[in-house]
Specification:
The complex is a heterodimer of chains A (150) and B (637).
Chain A (H helix, E strand, L loop, with lengths): L2 H10 L7 H12 L4 H11 L3 H10 L11 E6 L2 H5 L2 H12 L12 E6 L11 E3 L2 E3 L7 H6 L3
Parallel strand pairs in A: 1-2
Antiparallel strand pairs in A: 1-3, 3-4
Chain B lengths: L6 H13 L7 E5 L2 H5 L2 H14 L7 E5 L11 E4 L3 E3 L7 H10 L8 E2 L6 E2 L6 H4 L17 H6 L4 H9 L2 H11 L11 H10 L6 E6 L8 H8 L1 H15 L3 E6 L4 H17 L14 E6 L9 H8 L23 E5 H13 L1 H5 L9 E8 L5 E6 L4 H8 L9 E6 L5 E4 L9 H6 L8 E6 L4 H15 L5 H18 L7 H9 L8 H5 L2 H9 L1 H8 L12 E5 L9 H5 L5 E4 L2 E5 L9 H5 L7 E5 L20
Parallel strand pairs in B: 1-2, 7-8, 7-10, 8-9, 11-15
Antiparallel strand pairs in B: 1-3, 3-4, 5-6, 11-12, 13-14, 13-15, 16-19, 17-18
Helix pairs in contact in B: 3-4, 7-11, 7-14, 8-9, 8-11, 10-11, 10-12, 11-14, 18-19, 18-22, 19-20, 20-22
Classes of the chains: A alpha+beta (150), B alpha/beta (637).
Chain lengths: 150, 637
């Protein structure tokens, strides 16, 4: 990620240590992961020590310290989805993509994550791919859904 | 838009907004909340707009993209004004017909709600039983509004409470009204909101903050999301009034990152409110200054706890702090801070507009007003429901929810999020309010209500919550970090057939140490175990004996093909991904238990008219027929 762009994001949030999380969210959503050089730049500009930044990036679930695939697959494991068969959906997605939650495949095509509720409980089980919601899923449909992502 | 500087200018603005609107002009309100969007509502909006444009009807028919009215189960849904005709499961292909029916003032029968009991079609939104049995004081506005339009909100009386509070009342009077109304915090704790406001107001430090807690982390709850997405200005109006009452000049909205549309809508609402002069310097000429900033959560359940949320707002890891001192005394950057949940803030304009007596006329002795629940799980009408406090669980599940799908038997309702509890059938006639739920060993929580049927395994369900809490524990307090892990290990063993005699007593002993944690996550962690053990101990015992009666725990039940029912249709064998079914043409099929992965594909594949594939609790199944006895002898064709 370009250092100029990182500075822009930092300045947009007023270059304050209290904005650390908001700045990291912004970088994560643009770059999909947080490379070490980026974090070092943030540390330098905000005068926040690296160990504190490491604490934040490992405490909160939405940050990734490793590269992500082109398509981010989130399978909801919230209560409502759980009672409607989310585990089978997850099992099938694992089978189809060959990766477990938290992993990215070698071609950098898919990253798989589980989430603990995305608030679409009425449509469970739900899966989100690149921000697109797929509700009322049955295990048999998953192959067709994932086929659409290259 | 020129800034509004006085009550007179505000009155003129509202008059102008109302006079520019024709209440008889047809308007198609399409729900574009996250639920309906997931079901394809965006394509429906495009199809409707394209059709209107193709026919040159832009000036005659309006399309309004609204927030969630609650009936997610039947989305995408639309309401056609002025008649309030409600169509369900509308597809883009229906657009032409919908437009024609609006022009001809007719009704499309096939898109109406059909009463499952009487078979009658219901035309108007309010007559659908799902809505009829609710009292939708907050969520009912969603379908009337385009959340991106402040004028829509002004047209239904929006910001009138703000004008009344800031221009006609002293801050102390506002606090007094909220106290008098009996409003209790909707985020879970149920603390009287007026008292909390007063503590913050009376704290000596002149710099104070107000915060909206929209870190709705409870899995199975999405009422705050619907309010923020659908009625962002109502939440904002409540917050500004609260800031005025408390004496805060800066506020924060902490929204979880999993709710992108809510972040978008509330950010836009803040911007427009600033343009109109409802935020910023000298609001409505009252001399009161107030600004709001949106902060996003980064994915940590514990941040819904107020002290953890404060740390997160400060840019730190969200670990809870001991209380006291309470945030009302020392909160954000050590300044007095008042944190309320989204739904609590959204109730404030209602209290100011209608008066505390009107608000308190709804509800029970200790819990006033309405509560929004997300009714999900094994229930026919899933969605958001807003009901008066004191309604019975039975009314919610059966009258509003329509009962359990597929003629299955009701087992329990789970409320209060991961640290809540389960209520069995014997408690269905309980009145739902803060105190009754606590008495029954659960809690109100933020309002998730998950219905479970006979196919939900209660041991697995408790394990699910413990796994959730173990994952989300911040690790600061030992009883939470280690205790949950130990309970989870025992529960996992039980669900995998490794349960031992004495496990249940050990679990009960472990539940006792949790009180030593700092926040509600750790303190409430044993609740799922305690409540399921109390009401469903027989299921735990069955597991220890090697049987899962709900056929959920894979190690503790088996698939079996009843030889006398099998017609050798070969469906199951072809669907089995593990090659675990032996059989062939005219041969009775047999499950090879050693190969079976318990995926259930055979059960789904077996034609209901045969019903040969069944599940048996435990590992023992009747011995298969000897191979030479498997040929099916059929009668003459």
């Amino acid at each position: 990620m370009d250092i100029g762009r990182i500075d822009q994001i930092i300045d947009k949030h007023g270059c304050k240590a209290s904005s650390l999380i908001q700045i990291l969210i912004n970088i994560q959503s643009e770059n999909h992961w947080l490379p070490k050089e980026v974090l070092e730049r943030v540390s330098e500009r905000l005068a926040v020590p690296m160990n504190q930044i490491q604490h934040i990036t490992t405490f909160y679930k939405s940050f990734s310290l490793v590269p992500k695939g082109r398509h981010e697959v989130h399978v909801c494991m919230g209560t409502a989805c759980h009672v409607r068969g989310a585990q089978r959906v997850l099992d099938t997605v694992e089978e189809l993509t060959g990766i477990k939650p938290g992993e990215t495949d070698v071609d950098l095509k898919f990253s798989l994550e589980t989430v603990n509720c995305i608030g679409c409980c009425a449509l469970g089980p739900v899966m989100v791919v690149d921000g697109e919601y797929h509700g009322n899923l049955a295990a048999g449909q998953l192959e067709d859904v994932l086929k659409n992502y290259e | 838009m020129p800034k509004i500087n006085s009550s007179a200018e505000f009155a003129a603005l509202r008059k102008e907004v109302l006079s520019s609107r024709d209440p008889n002009r047809p308007c198609i309100a399409v729900c574009t909340g996250s639920g309906c969007l997931a079901l394809g509502a965006a394509n429906l909006v495009t199809a409707l707009k394209d059709e209107i444009q193709a026919q040159g009807l832009e000036s005659r028919i309006e399309v309004r993209e609204t927030g969630c009215p609650g009936f997610c189960e039947r989305g995408p849904l639309i309401v056609v004004y002025p008649d309030e005709t409600c169509y369900l499961k509308v597809q883009p292909a229906d657009a032409k017909e919908v437009i024609a029916s609006v022009l001809e003032k007719t009704v499309i029968d096939r898109l109406l709600y059909v009463d499952p009991v009487t078979g009658e079609r219901v035309v108007h939104e309010m007559d659908i039983p799902f809505y009829q049995n609710q009292l939708r004081l907050l969520i009912g506005n969603n379908i009337k509004l385009d959340p991106t339009s402040i004028e829509d909100y002004l047209a239904i009386g929006g910001y009138a409470a703000l004008e009344k509070a800031l221009c006609q009342m002293k801050p102390e009077q506002v606090v007094g009204l909220v106290k008098e109304s009996g409003l209790r915090g909707r985020g879970g704790g149920g603390f009287p909101s007026g008292n909390k406001w007063e503590f913050t107001r009376n704290a000596p430090d002149p710099v104070k903050y107000v915060v909206v807690n929209a870190d709705e982390g409870d899995p199975g709850a999405f009422m705050d999301r619907a309010l923020l997405e659908g009625s962002p200005h109502a939440v904002l109006e409540g917050l500004i009034i609260g800031a005025y009452a408390i004496g805060a000049h800066e506020g924060f909205l902490y929204v979880r990152q999993e709710y992108p549309l809510a972040v978008e809508n509330i950010t836009l609402a803040i911007k427009t409110a600033e343009e109109y002069g409802f935020l910023g310097k000298n609001i409505l000429g009252s001399g009161f200054d107030f600004i709001v900033e949106v902060a996003q959560g980064a994915g940590a359940f514990v941040c819904g706890e107020e002290t953890a949320l404060i740390r997160s707002l400060e840019g730190k890891a969200g670990e809870p702090k001991p209380r006291p001192p309470f945030p009302a005394v020392r909160g954000l950057w050590d300044k007095p801070t008042n944190i309320n949940n989204v739904e609590t803030w959204a109730n404030i304009p209602l209290i100011i507009n209608k008066g505390p007596a009107a608000f308190a006329s709804v509800g029970t002795a200790g819990s006033k007003g309405t509560k929004i629940f997300s009714l999900v799980g094994k229930v026919k009408n899933t969605g958001l429901v807003e009901v008066p406090m004191g309604i019975t669980l039975r009314d919610i599940v059966y009258k509003i929810g329509g009962g359990i799908p597929g003629d299955k038997r009701f087992k329990a309702v789970q409320t209060g999020g991961p640290a809540g509890g389960c209520m069995p059938e014997s408690l269905l006639d309980m009145e739902v309010d803060f105190d009754q739920l606590t008495k029954a060993g659960s809690m109100m929580g933020s309002g998730g209500m998950i219905v479970l049927d006979e196919e939900t395994c209660m041991v697995d369900f408790a394990r699910f919550f413990l796994a959730f809490l173990a994952d989300e524990s911040c690790g600061k307090c030992v009883p939470c970090r280690e205790g949950i892990q130990q309970m989870l290990t025992i529960l996992t063993d039980i669900t995998q057939g490794k349960g031992k005699k004495g496990d249940l007593d050990l679990l009960l002993q472990l539940t006792e140490v949790s009180g030593a944690s700092l926040c509600a996550l750790g303190k409430g962690a044993p609740n799922p175990v305690m409540s399921t053990l109390k009401h469903f101990r027989d299921e735990y015992e069955a597991h220890i004996e090697g049987k899962c009666p709900a056929f959920t725990c894979k190690e503790l039940f088996s698939f079996y093909i009843e030889p006398e029912k099998c017609q050798a249709c070969t469906n199951c064998g072809r669907k089995c991904p593990a090659g675990a079914i032996e059989g062939g043409k005219n041969l009775i099929h047999v499950v090879d238990q050693a190969k079976c992965t318990k995926c259930g594909a055979c059960l789904e594949a077996c034609p209901p008219r045969f019903g040969a594939v069944t599940r048996i609790p435990g590992k023992a199944v009747p011995a298969p027929l000897p191979e030479d006895a498997r040929t099916i002898v059929r009668g003459n064709k």
